[in-house]
Amino acid sequence: MYNVSIELLSKDNSQDIYFFEQENKVYFERTLPPRPDGYYDLESFDSIIDELISEQNENKCYMYIIRNSDNIMVGRVNLFIIENELDTAELGYRIAEKENGKGYATMAIALVLEKAFNLYGLEKVIAGTAKENKASQNVLSKNGFYFTKEIKKDICLNDKWVDTLVFKLSKEDYCGYITKNKKAHRSSY
Q1: How far are the Cα atoms of 9, 12, 25, 40, 43 from residue 47, in angstroms, in the given order?
Q2: Which domain holds residue 54?
Q3: If we measure between CA atoms, which residue out of 92, 77, 88 comes closest to residue 124?
Q4: How confident is the model over 92-150, as pLDDT tens digits?
Q5: How far apart are CA 53 and CA 45, in angstroms?
Q6: Cα–Cα distances in Å, from 78 out to 52, 64, 126, 158?
Q7: In the chain, which end has fewer C-beta atoms inside a 10 angstrom radius, N or C?
Q8: Which residues are CB-contacts of 10 (< 8 A; sequence separation ≥ 6)?
Q9: How many structural domains is the chain composed of?
């Protein structure tokens, strides 16, 4: 497993995000809805980044980039505050195609959850994955999330309706999960 760090979206790292998104566009669009028209136009992208930074400053979202031990951007992980449930956020993440399977998502989500519950004061984090996306479901499970429901025909992706599985982690469950895993980790020495 590799080491990762996370850093909040800023003007300083926005070009890394732009190139990351461009480099992985085709890969992401195989499993996620495509970005809106103009997203990959540099001027439009700068405007999108400005808007996201503004929302971040208003505590509406927390957008992180994931860097590996060589300081290279390998992914993104985001928390979007649910508008009518201010103590709840939706988790989203994506890892570069060539960086999949290295544990980056699992580690980055662990770092973001620590901030979600201990810094941002959230009480619950939810996440959704396509029913077929077993790797993403495993990442959530490794971080203490549990399955709550299935939404049939939730997203139209490449002209096909896809079912979504929804997962949840409460602050209370997170604290229990962390305590249990620290004990398991200590007993493995």
Answers
A1: 14, 14, 19, 11, 6
A2: 4-187
A3: 88
A4: 999 999 999 999 999 999 999 999 999 999 999 999 998 988 999 999 999 999 999 99
A5: 12
A6: 11, 6, 12, 24
A7: C
A8: 53
A9: 1
The structure tokens listed for 127 are 């996440």
> Which tokens is 174 given?
């997170």
CATH assignment at residue 31: 3.40.630.30
Instruction: Specify burial of residue 134 (Cβ count, 10 A radius: 0-12, 13-18, 19+).
Output: exposed
Do 179 and 185 contact (CB within 8 A), yes or no?
A: no
Please choose, from the candidates 142, 39, 140, the residue with its C-alpha nearest in 3D space to the C-alpha of residue 93.
140
Cross-strand partners of 62 = 79
Smallest CA-to-CA distance from 79 within 69, 87, 70, 89 is with: 89
